[in-house]
Design a protein that fits this description.
three-stranded antiparallel β-sheet; mainly alpha; about 110 residues; 3 strands
Length: about 110
């Protein structure tokens, strides 16, 4: 048994309230679906991460600190994406390779 009121006026008010509440729920569902679709579009439109990173020094005059593989966990906040050729050139110019991700090995770079 449900605990509904027995009289018609209160049942009609309850029906109206439920219809309004259902409309609110449907709007909330539509908004959540739109947010999820936008999130998925954002994931699909996200650019590929760089394959190689150059960790910069503390200021513009400081030399680069390390060369990293693009997905290295130890890149710091001063890294920028570089091409394979730039990574090889940086290693050739004496920028150290990260000891964690070993970009020199990944690039096939042999020192000397």
């Amino acid at each position: 048994m449900t605990n509904l009121p027995p009289d018609l006026p209160r049942l009609l008010v309850l029906e109206t309230w439920l219809a309004l509440a259902l409309a609110d729920v449907r709007r909330a569902i539509a908004a959540a679906e739109q947010r999820e679709a936008e999130r998925q579009r954002g994931i699909q439109a996200r650019p590929e991460p760089p394959a190689w990173l150059l960790e910069m020094g503390l200021n513009r005059a400081a030399p680069p600190v390390h060369v990293h593989v693009g997905d290295c966990w130890d890149t710091g906040g001063r890294s920028r994406g570089i091409s394979r050729e730039e990574a090889l050139q940086a290693l050739t110019d004496g920028t150290p390779a990260c000891t964690h991700c070993r970009p020199d090995t990944a690039l096939g770079y042999l020192d000397g």
